[in-house]
Amino acid sequence: MGDCKGKCVNEGGINCQSIDYNSQSKDCHISEARSDSGDYTEPCYLDGWQYTELLIDADKRWSKIKYACIRSNNYKTFNGILTMGDCKGKCVNEGGINCQSIDYNSQSKDCHISEARSDSGDYTEPCYLDGWQYTELLINADKRWSKIKYACIRSNNYKTFNGILTMGDCKGKCVNEGGINCQSIDYNSQSKDCHISEARSDSGDYTEPCYLDGWQYTELLIDAGK
């Protein structure tokens, strides 16, 4: 089962949400669905299969709470949520990879989970409706990264930043502004350009060494011990 978990987090990327494992056949199935899916069955409809899913820590760091909101991007809506903290917990434990931000109303006790963030065109500050507060996940830039190589990925830039002074700053841009699309970066220390990509070194567009001079590459290493 441990090897199956490792396959999930290291090869499944953002699609690694759960696994089915059969210890007799040694088969390992990686899925982006979770136990809240309509296709989840307990016990399994086939013999010999075991199931586990990633548990996402509700204590992840969140941005400063603002009187703001995101219009019309609700992935899930919950009623009767007593606190902002409970709303955060709903987001990370039930939203999965779609948990990027929350809108919370302390008067109505409504909690909205969204995959959009404050860089969305639908973000309004202050919120266009009264009583709503907003916060979003801050993703730690100190996640483990692969060894830096003189390599790059061609034509897969999710976002491009100029004037980025260091490789570390480029990593920070990736995890804090790239969200689930932050899988790798290309960085040029001479031009100070930083490219964020959702592609990884298993992409057909990955070149080592890079087809252009001066570019270095690294990608997020996903911890198999989750």
Automatic annotation (TrEMBL):
**Taxonomic lineage of this organism?**
Eukaryota, Metazoa, Ecdysozoa, Arthropoda, Crustacea
This protein's source sits in the domain of life called Eukaryota
Gene Ontology BP annotations: anatomical structure morphogenesis
Concerning InterPro entries, the annotation shows:
Celegans_DevNeuronal_Protein (IPR052774), Pan_app (IPR003609)
Q: Any idea what this protein is called?
A: Apple domain-containing protein
UniProt domain Apple: residue ranges: 64-140, 147-223
